[in-house]
Design brief:
The protein has 290 residues and is mainly β. It has helices at residues 110-115, 273-285, and strands at residues 6-11, 13-17, 21-27, 38-49, 57-62, 65-73, 76-80, 85-88, 93-97, 102-108, 117-127, 138-142, 148-150, 156-162, 164-165, 168-169, 178-185, 190-194, 200-207, 210-212, 215-217, 221-225, 230-235, 248-255, 263-265, 268-270. The strands form six sheets. The protein has a seven-stranded antiparallel β-sheet with strand order 1-22-19-24-17-14-13, with no helix packed on it. The chain has a seven-stranded antiparallel β-sheet with strand order 2-3-4-11-6-9-12. A four-stranded antiparallel β-sheet has the order 5-10-7-8. 42% of the residues are buried.
Length: 290
């Protein structure tokens, strides 16, 4: 196998969303609109909220892409204009295909808001191909115990939410071919696995550092990998007050590039400016989520 190396690093920048919650965002940022087929990666926390401190996002529209929300700690609830709703706990994933349009809101559960606690999660936006941008909205609520889990080496835990990765098949159904994996690596632990040579591959340390084919990525520093058919990872150190010897938490995400024109305006991601104008008009007229 030919291991992939890091060809670009994108350190996360601070951004504020919704009612005031802070995220770490490696992209989009000035100069990097997307990493095809991925449109956005937001890292929430880890942050400990006191009682009454947790916030979320009020009702907002989406069209033309999918959102994947994966929670490591805390509780979130979501609901939409079509009557769908659910609650996420640690290890759960909420996969929303916005398609032709939906109004959506998400935030802390009443219990988490009242009691506070540790919140840690990630939201990924996945572009939809032109032929599927106007499909009917759909949802997948993937419970933690449905995620494929393995321990392929000492000090390594692999969880696969979607796609085929590290010898596992995740439960998520993808319209744009992607894989989504969460790895826990003890310091010095090694793991490798095949990746599709035609996929974009991203490695993002959520907690601690990770070394990819000899180059170390710091916490919240996204690595975009170059060509090859495998990925090799080594667990690094956890700083910023973490427990000595604590494990790193790492996302490994891959996806087949769409290589299509992208026209985006806030929560709308289409292929042409005219389609964006139609989305805005549909939102103003109340047709977006019907």
């Amino acid at each position: 196998m030919s291991p992939r190396s890091v060809v670009r690093t994108l350190p996360a920048h601070r951004a504020v969303e919704g009612d005031g919650f802070v995220v770490r965002r490696p992209f989009p940022v000035p100069g990097v609109d997307l990493v095809d087929p991925f449109l956005l990666l937001d890292h929430m926390g880890p942050v400990t909220h006191g009682p009454g401190e947790a916030v979320g996002t009020p009702v907002h529209p989406h069209r033309g892409f999918e959102t994947v929300t994966y929670l490591l700690a805390g509780e979130l609830q979501h609901r939409d204009s079509l009557g769908n709703e659910g609650v996420l706990g640690p290890g759960d994933t909420q996969w929303m295909t916005a398609g032709r349009g939906v109004l959506h809101e998400e935030g802390p559960t009443p219990r988490f808001l009242a009691e506070g606690g540790l919140l840690h999660g990630v939201q990924l936006w996945v572009n939809l191909p032109a032929a599927e941008k106007m499909v009917a909205p759909a949802y997948q609520d993937l419970a933690a115990d449905a995620v494929a889990v393995d321990h392929p080496a000492d000090g390594v835990t692999v969880r696969v939410v979607a796609g085929s990765a590290f010898g596992l098949q995740g439960p998520g159904t993808t319209r744009t071919p992607i894989t989504y994996s969460h790895l826990t690596l003890a310091p010095g632990a090694h793991v490798s696995g095949p990746v599709d040579p035609g996929h974009t591959v991203l490695v993002y340390p959520l907690v601690g550092s990770v070394t990819v084919a000899g180059l170390t990525l710091a916490e919240s520093e996204l690595g975009v990998l170059g060509p090859g058919d495998s990925v090799q990872l080594e667990g690094g150190s956890v700083s910023d007050g973490g427990e000595p010897g604590a494990s790193s938490e790492v996302l490994v995400i891959s996806g087949r590039p769409l290589r299509e024109p992208v026209a985006r305006y806030g929560p709308f991601v289409m292929n042409t400016r005219q389609e964006l104008l139609e989305a805005i008009e549909d939102m103003r007229s109340g047709r977006l989520a019907t």
